[in-house]
Amino acid sequence: MLKAPWRQSLLRWFIAALIIIPGGFLTLIGWFLWEIRATYADYDQVKACLEQYQFEIIDEWQHEDMILEDFGWQFRTSDGKTIAIEIYDGDSPRDCYHRAAGVRVSKKSSVWPEPGSFSEPFSFYLSFDNPDLIAALGGKRLKNMDDMFANLDELLTWTEQNPDHVLRSLKDQKNSSRYLNLIILPDQ
User: Fold this and answer.
1) What does 65-82 look like in DSSP terms, one character per residue?
2) CA pair distance 73, 60, nearest whole angstrom
3) Which pTM value belongs to this model?
4) How distant, in Å, are the alpha carbons of 12, 15, 33, 36 from that of 26?
5) Which helix (H) or strand (E) is 158 found in, with range?
6) How far is C-alpha 187 from the geometric centre of its chain's CA atoms?
7) What is the DSSP letter of 120?
8) Fewer CB near the terminus (10 Å): N or C of the chain?
9) Residue 91 has what DSSP assignment?
10) What's the rounded Cα separation, in Å, for the pair 16 and 54?
């Protein structure tokens, strides 16, 4: 039997293709599906956004394992309300300019809780597409955290005056990870 060097070369290419093509395909799928949810750049951007609107930052927290996962701030508005904004792992709007579907407003009965602890006696979802909210803001539709901060006093006033226009439970919202987390804290 004659030795054919091309057979060995063909066999090497075939084995390499069996390894490289599925490996590349799996890498490509993983690249599309995996996304770091919160980064230090997101943290810095939200902090700069809070400072831009001259909110008095009272407290801040970060949850770090190998990467920054969750973070938040407690701040005071111009009319003296104590508010918190929190970004959690898995939230899609995690900086000032990501599009948000709305805002999840929680009213806490106790002072600033430990990070990650939920003691929410009252929580509701408010869609930024709500036509009454858009009318109350002079025709402006809120799109992201920056818009929300720019109109925070009007948004909070509107939610207090119109409790019937909010969605009460998470079951009502299929895209709850697209909502911003805003927490109204009791006066200290």
Assistant:
1) SSSEEEEEEEEE-TTS-E
2) 4
3) 0.69
4) 22, 17, 11, 18
5) helix 152-161
6) 26
7) -
8) N
9) -
10) 59
